[in-house]
Specification:
The chain is an all-beta fold. It has one domain: Roll (10 Kd Chaperonin, Protein Cpn10, Chain O), CATH 2.30.33.40. 0% of the residues lie in helices and 40% in strands.
């Protein structure tokens, strides 16, 4: 099994897929497939370096459910499973 380990301030997220409903009817994925803006953190990098060269710890942790900007993630597929790689700055909020 391949293990992904993000570098710097990158975060690996597994998208949370929600069914789209319109007027009480559940639409199949083939009709409207947009990238999710919500996901569960599966791995976090060590954090970025500040101007003095000190490591700034990340503000998210494995297991957090986060909201992120729609077009920022890079999609990767590892062993048949899709992940998103996001810079921590592109994460907008942690859902509690």
């Amino acid at each position: 099994m391949t293990k992904l380990r993000p570098l710097s301030d990158h975060v690996i997220v597994e998208a949370v897929v929600e069914e789209k409903k319109k007027g009480g009817i559940i639409l199949p994925e083939t009709i409207e497939k947009e990238r999710s803006e919500k996901g569960r953190v599966v791995a976090v990098g060590p954090g970025k370096l500040d101007k003095d060269g000190k490591r700034v710890p990340p503000g998210v942790k494995k297991g957090d459910v986060v909201l992120f900007t729609k077009y920022s993630p890079n999609e990767v597929k590892v062993e048949g499973k899709e992940y998103l790689i996001i810079k921590e700055d592109d994460i907008l909020a942690i859902m509690e």
